[in-house]
Each structure stands twice: as C-alpha cells, then as structure tokens.
Amino acid sequence: MKLSTKGRYGVRALLDLALHQDEGLVPLKDIARRQEVSLPYLEHLITPLVAAGLVKSTRGARGGVSLVKPPSEIKLSEAVQLLEGSIAPVDCVNDPKLCHRSAYCVTRDIWSEMKNAMSQVLDSTTIQDLVERQRQKGQPETEMYHI
Amino acid sequence: MKLSTKGRYGVRALLDLALHQDEGLVPLKDIARRQEVSLPYLEHLITPLVAAGLVKSTRGARGGVSLVKPPSEIKLSEAVQLLEGSIAPVDCVNDPKLCHRSAYCVTRDIWSEMKNAMSQVLDSTTIQDLVERQRQKGQPETEMYHI
DNA sequence: TACTAAGTTGATTCTTTTTGTCAACATTAG
DNA sequence: CTAATGTTGACAAAAAGAATCAACTTAGTA
C-alpha cells in the first residue's frame, strides 16, 4: 500500500508551485531544487498534470509552469489520480470483470471500503489547504538550506 | 497504492480457513485449490501468520493449518499488517526520521490522514465479519466449479 | 539573427520488488 | 515404512519503479 514517488513528488511539486504562484512562471529547475528532485525526473512527473490541463507550461527563456486553476479548486484526489492512477487497492474494485470471483468475493468489498475511506480524505483536501497548513508550519521549502 | 498478492491472497486464505474450521485441520493444498493460488506460493504467504501465532500448523499426514483465535478476534488490520507490513502510504509516516523534511512537510500529514482512514476500516472488520458476509452472498468458494 | 534558457519526448538503463518455483528437509498418521 | 503434509532457503523470471540521457522544440533577448 505504498504511494510511489510520482504521487509524492508530484503533489509536492503542485504545492511548491502554488506557494510561488505570485512570482509568475515557475521554472521546473526551481521546483526541482526546492523539492530535492532531479530535474529530468520532475519533467516526467509534471507531464500528466500538463496533459490534463491542471498545469500550464511555457517553453523558452523565462518560461516555466503555472497553475491553471486556483489552488482551492485542485483536489488532491484529482492530482493523485493523474499522478498515480486509481487509488483502488486492487484493480477489481474499479472493474469487476477483471476477476471471475468478483461477484462472490467479500474481500473485494473490503478493498472497496478502503478505497472509499482514502477517497474521502483526498476529496476533501485541496492544494489551498496544503498552502495554508504550510504557512502555519513555516519553512515552506528548503530555500534556507545553504550548507 | 496497490495491495500486493500477499495481502490479497493471505486474507482470502484466512477467510477460507475460517469457513472450513469445522472440518478440522485444513490442508494448504485445499486452500490453494479453492482460492486458486499455487501451493508453493501459499506456503510462503502463510509463514508470517504462523510465526505471529495467528495460525497453527501441523505437519505430517492428515496435517494442515487451523486458526488459533476465533475469527471474531482476528482484525483485518492485524492480518494485513503481518502480510504486507505497514499500510502507511509512505514510510516517513511511521518514522519521521527517514526524511529530513518531515518536520515541515504538510504532505506527510495528508498521507498520515490517509493511513488513519484505512486503519479505521481494517480495525473495525474481523475475519468473522467476512465469514458472515460470505454466507450471505453464498458461493463461498470455487468448489462448485467443475469445468 | 544568433544565442540561451526553458519545456517535450522517447529511448534506455539500473535497481528493487513482486511473484513465484524448486529442492531438500522435517514431521506425523496409519 | 511410507505417504502426506508443512518448513526453509535458494533461486529466478517478470514487472514496476526510478530515474538518466539525448535530441528536439519553443521563445525571449542581446
């Protein structure tokens, strides 16, 4: 039941982007540095978010990425879905036809309940919520880390 | 966020075992056949359950496995923990020291909430609950599948 | 116009995890 | 004694995860 780095880094990238929105276009390089992720990898992480229209990218000098919607309208469920695919613990929860036992399988019902429990958390949290929590905690990113 | 076959097959094996408790010791071979899992693989799945004292095994002819506790006292959280390890979406939820960002990381808080949501489902469901659901659904296993 | 700083895309690679299999062994009933 | 079972550890094939690299496109700017 582990989240991959796609989901973890991807959500952090969105949060980082939201925190720096006011500075205009944010270069991936900056996000990569602050979030301690390699730039080539971040480029791949951001791809599905751009494809889905959650993030807009601008090429060229002074380019970068920006959020298309306000952070308050970006649910974590949406982001995680794009980054990781379905959070269902087992695929048969989404598509019963994948397993011929589905109709009589009671464990499948439990995995479905787990999915719902997770969805409830992710549906009720937005990037804006993360922004506010971050501002309360302070130290929004690693910027003050100069070794 | 996928459950591995260990968790899925393992919980099904426990349910199968609970459904056939009254027949005395249940050979792994029978569980493997009904649950459509290879016997050598099932042997490995059952190992942590035996080691934890959840399941008792008896070698030799007419041997097999049996539940140590009544099904009503076996929480799914306990079973899944043994089969899969922690359900925390990220390891830093269990051990903040794993990541130097933990203290200021708000995404970690969200993953922690997800873990709690999942735990709530698994803590409140026992193998006995599965047994009862299965009896209501009928067709407890594949026994009536003769092609 | 050239140059440079970006994002895009696809191929490739390395590592780890998953999902098993196999063989040798230990134990017990009959 | 023998057959049926569980135990253990080594091994391996396949898949997924986690990147890296190179070639390309685009856009600002000197």
Describe the structure.
Two copies of one chain form a homodimer. By secondary structure, the first copy, chain A, is mainly alpha-helical. The first copy, chain A, has helices spanning 5-19, 28-35, 39-51, 76-84, 106-123, 127-137; strands spanning 55-58, 64-67. Chain A has one domain: Orthogonal Bundle (Arc Repressor Mutant, subunit A). Chain A is built from six helices and two strands, in the order H-H-H-E-E-H-H-H. In chain A, helix 1 crosses helix 6. The mean pLDDT of chain A is 94. Chain A binds a DNA duplex (30 and 30 nucleotides) through residues 4-6, 25, 27-29, 38, 40-41, 43-44, 46-47, 50, 57-65.
Topology:
The structure is a homodimer of 147-residue chains.
Chain A: H1 5-19, H2 28-35, H3 39-51, E1 55-58, E2 64-67, H4 76-84, H5 106-123, H6 127-137
Helix pairs in contact in A: 1-2, 1-4, 1-6, 4-5
Chain A binds a DNA duplex (30 and 30 nucleotides) through residues 4-6, 25, 27-29, 38, 40-41, 43-44, 46-47, 50, 57-65.
Radius of gyration of chain A: 18 Å
Given as residue ranges, the uncertain stretches of chain A (5+ residues, pLDDT < 50) are none
CATH class of chain A: Mainly Alpha
Fraction of residues in H or I helices of chain A? 40-55%
**Mean pLDDT rating of chain A:** 94
Global shape of chain A? elongated
Q: Could you give me the name of the CATH homologous superfamily of chain A?
A: Winged helix-like DNA-binding domain superfamily/Winged helix DNA-binding domain
Let me know the number of strands of chain A. 2
Multimerization status: homodimer
Structural class of chain A: mainly alpha
In CATH, the topology of chain A is named Arc Repressor Mutant, subunit A
The ordered string of helix (H) and strand (E) elements of chain A is HHHEEHHH
Strand order of the largest sheet of chain A: 1-2
Number of helices of chain A: 6
End-to-end separation of chain A in angstroms reads 35 Å
